Amino acid sequence: MTVGKKVLELNNIDKTFGAVNALSGIQLSVLAGEVIALVGDNGAGKSTLVKIAAGVIPPDQGNILFDGEPVVFRGPMEATRAGIAVIYQDLALCDNLSVVSNLFLGREIQNGIPLSPLNEEAMESKVLELLKELNVGQIREIDIKVGNLSGGQRQTIAIARSLIGEPKVVLLDEPTAALGVAQKVEVLKLIRRLADRGIGVLVISHNISEVLEVSDRVVVLRLGKVVANFETKKITSDDVVAAITGSKSFN
To answer: Cβ distance 164 to 107 under 8 Å?
Structure first.
């Protein structure tokens, strides 16, 4: 997929919590069809930045552009409706519900008028189509309860669910945490497939080898500031570590 236009831009973003400057002067853009890895030590501001992009908390200063237009998200639902999907570490899946029910939770397809019976056939068809498009072969039973799936399969379901609303940007918080080697490989492949669909992807990760494998760019936060913005193909893991620890300046 060829990288396209900017879909999400965060300009001069500041955020403080009491006496703590969580973010200062953040400049970050996400392009269509691009995977950006957001890295940094604990407390660097990664989660705060994602929460601002997702409409969970407002910035103190700065502005956000989406598809080139200024936006102010007054909550996560407004960000979702605009085209930003977020997948947090806890995945927020319902273990007692099926794959289909999880994907369409809150977005169920009904037969005609509101309060009419659900269109189970249409939802099942959409799920099968989506899993096929994503080349997900390890989930063959869509009526199985999500609680019976492996960690990698659950992550896949969370990613697939985010696509039901046809987002332009997907934000993932540590998507391979607590997964086995084989499961990590499948999730990384799935992230690349999101970009191949023209979606801008921002991934928070502590795993530098995975970052270098899956991303097009690596943005490093340190003490609430962007200290490096690398093209992945031009750097090594040593460069990323040096930027994270501050042992070398890249600005």
So the answer is: yes
CATH architecture type of domain 6-94+168-245:
3-Layer(aba) Sandwich (3.40)
20-31 vs 6-17, strand pairing mode:
antiparallel
Tens digits of residue pLDDT in 7-56? 999 999 999 999 999 999 999 999 999 999 999 999 999 999 999 999 99
For CA atoms 52, 175, 248, 239, the dihedral sign is: negative
Q: Which of 201, 160, 207 is nearest to 181 (CA)?
A: 207
**Domain segments of the chain: what residues?**
6-94+168-245
Rg, Å, the chain Cα set: 19
Q: Is 156 left (phi over 0), alpha (psi -120 to 50) or beta?
A: alpha
Give phi and psi for 82, each to the nearest 5. -70, -30
Chain-centroid distance of CA 71 in Å reads 19
SS percent in the chain: helix, strand, coil, step 5: 35, 25, 40
- The residue with tokens 């552009």 is 65
